[in-house]
What does this fold into?
Amino acid sequence: MGQQPILTVNNLNIDVSTPYGVTRTVRDVSFKIEAGKVFGLVGESGSGKTMTCMSLLNLLPDEAKVVKGSIQFRNKDILNYSEEDMRKVRGSEIATIMQNPMTAFNPVRTIGRHFIETLRTHLPITKHQAREMAVAYLEKMDLPYPKNLLKQYPFQLSGGMLQRVMIAITMSLNPSILIADEPTTALDATNQLQILKQLNWLRKEYDTGILLVSHDLGVIAQLADEVAVMYGGYIVEKAPVFKLFNRPMHPYTRVLLESRIGLTRRKTKIVKHISVPPPNLINRENTCPFLERCEDADHTCSSYNLELKEYEKDHLVRCLKSR
Amino acid sequence: MGWFIVKRLTSLIPILFGISLITFILLHLTPGDPAIAYLRASHIPPTDEAVAALRVELGLDKPLYAQYVEWLGKAVQLDLGMSYLSKKSVWDEIMLHFFPTVQLTFASCILIVVISLPIGMISAIFKGKLVDQLSRIIAFVSVSMPAFWFGFLLIYFLSVKLDLFPVLGRGTFAHLVLPSLTLSFAYIGTYTRLLRASMLENLNEPFVMYARARGLRGRLIVSRHVLKKSLLPVLTGLGMSFGNMLSGVVIVETVFAWPGMGQLFVTSILNRDYPMIQGCLLFMGVIFVVCNLLVDIAYSFLDPRIRWEGEK
It folds into this structure.
């Protein structure tokens, strides 16, 4: 490590107003993304992963708002950017791979139009030049017959192909940060592996820093350098990938890992965790979000004010019981 | 693409056959004797002998299926018989009245598109804002105001008071303005709301989010991504309305004394001019079906998914 991070998120807090009240979906989230490194974000649905991603692009939905914190991109806070400045950053500096490639493309526009419009938004080039660039990058992604591909419509391609097209579009602008929000969730296992290999290749080739969001620990283990586990809007544990997998400290991380490797062993424990509903985040106090589901919790937990503590070097845990 | 059109064209054959059959049977189910109607229209007292003689002459004494085959055989060659009323060829009469209707329809459609698209787009983009509220009011007024009243209002203010346009009839370009405005007005509300709803739906699609995440300009996202996809339902509706308008708009044509299909049709019904009614019905049916075919083809241009399904 020791490198200057490209993107630094500090104490990010995001509120979402719902018909039932205000929810703090992201609480005190801090992390760094360095060039050529992959930062993994794990967590169940509703834990705040996607909201964190959207805020990095300044594309939060209307009902969500950053209430505290900063997002430093190359030492400038992008939360202060004007919409036009931010627009220029999107795609060219901070790029995204969407969760579901089948719905991310406009069904009435060809792949070529998607590709060329993106290039021409950020680069002063002609349509012809853009097309040639597109062909070159599609080839790099091992997509067959790239010229033909440009004339095709999204629904004529498989999910895996579309995901690779998306990566090709992303890479053609050589961004310094890539946000990959569940890049493999909508794909089958063969395609998943291929996409992961390609993501790995491009971070090496282009030195791109990747924010890899997933609820699949296998995906994270394969690609990430550092991992943060999110629960109830908090980062509950953050560590280099091997430390996290070898010595999970937070009870939630442990459950997460156990539920993966030990479906037959310790079945009862997992069932217990699932039978308790996930925490209601509306108007919630600053208590541990995992309180209701935690096995190790006792009366001291409910009064405890949560802080992320360094358990050992680079291994941060947000739990009273973890020492 | 070519295959798609061929497939659609073949599917027209049974539909057209059905239209002709229904047209023919419908008229023979209605009470009243065509022979008597013919005599009345010609101001001849319908005595028993006269009726009997005429029935033979018109072929009404033959069995129904024979009449149908004969009628259809001629209809295919564009011979729709002779009007009882004017004693002219039905086909010629229809052609004479069809052109004014085509003119009116095209003018109205242009107005509908030119007015509804911007309003619908703007009210979708500024959802809930003042512009949106205003467009909602316009839409309500447009849908609920009867055409004959709106037509008279236009005549009263723009023709009589301000003397900007001629009151009635057909001739110059100025004659076209008020009727087409009246005709299109009722549709504008519908299409404004339709486009608005369709755009709002598409604005929430993931492809819009992805387009924004790629840094595309807002204007480009709306015009190239959202609008094109949102036009699909509007186009379907517009095609149907087009067919509707082409088969004659009785009220507007009556208010403005516009010599179109609607006028011809109503006059022929009032006079029980059987060949003319049959001819008009068949013609309108064909026009309507052809309009839908054209919409389908246009649709497949806008939405590649339909095109490719046809090829599979």
Q: What stands out?
A: The radius of gyration of chain A is 20 Å. Residues 7-85+177-188+205-322 of chain A form a domain with the Rossmann fold fold (CATH 3.40.50.300). Chain A touches chain B through 30 residues (CB under 8 Å).
